[in-house]
């Protein structure tokens, strides 16, 4: 069994903490969602023991430093790339939950040669906030700053399949994320650069999606044409915690079928 190593890189003078299991130039790279952290992937431990795996606390999240900067997708993606470079990962399979999906896509756009595949977990092509005007985003940022409104925003993520322990864990982590990160990470004015029509990545990709985000942006398929979508109709946003065995098996099936993992 691969033992865990807690590591960090310095990125824009701030510490980015990550955990590494195993070794080699190929790795599963787990990227958490908005206001979440690597700790939520605890039920993916069986995957960590089978494949070289890295779980990252994005800047501002989990154990990583939280400088007062704009938490743009590009900023967060470049932190992931810093980890890939430090770990000499030339063939990453990115697994991005929710906001971690657009972060993964940005990693793909910035360093396509290092990305062997992407698994999106109840995610989207653009952050939902991208479709808002600046003033709508500012209003949303103000709502997220209010603890009570923030909790009611999260309420739909609690589903019958999620154990109460896991829900407490999620709420604990999400409410302990620094307020300036919580309000900034999805609503910053620093939006990703636009897509050229011909910006296309022929990378294998899988989207495990619940009804919450099933009605996705069809541009996604234009830019990442090999994207496969699998709907989990009875699950909620934290499906990898709700049914970890099924989730881990779906990851294994995708890796095997597309022969993504070289050791
Ligand atoms: C990455 O490669 C460099 C240069 O070959 C080496 O010094 C370093 O130890 C490697 N890092 C890891 C984590 O394997
Ligand atoms: C994000 O943080 C920066 C730096 O602290 C700040 O200037 C900006 O107003 C913040 N944006 C939002 C939407 O909170």
* Spatial strand order of the main sheet: 1-2-4-3-5-6-7-8
- The succession of helices and strands, N to C, reads EEEHEHEHEHHHHEHEHH
Mean pLDDT: 96
Are there runs of 5+ residues with pLDDT below 50, and where? none
CATH domain fold name: Rossmann fold
The fraction of residues assigned to DSSP E strands is: 15-25%
Overall morphology: globular
**Radius of gyration in whole Å, from Cα?**
17 Å
Q: Helical segment tally?
A: 10
**Computed structural class:** alpha/beta
How many distinct domains? 1
Bound molecules: 2-acetamido-2-deoxy-beta-D-glucopyranose
N→C terminal distance: 15 Å
Largest sheet: 8 strands, mixed
What's the CATH superfamily, by name? Alpha/Beta hydrolase fold, catalytic domain
Helix fraction by DSSP (H/I, runs of at least 4): 25-40%
* CATH-defined architecture: 3-Layer(aba) Sandwich
Number of strands: 8
User: What is the top-level CATH class?
Assistant: Alpha Beta
Architecture overview:
Helix content is 35%, strand content 19%. It has 263 residues and is of the alpha/beta class. An 8-stranded mixed beta sheet has the order 1-2-4-3-5-6-7-8. Helix 2 packs across helix 3 (100-110). It is globular, with a radius of gyration of 17 Å. One 2-acetamido-2-deoxy-beta-D-glucopyranose (NAG) binds at residues 87-88.
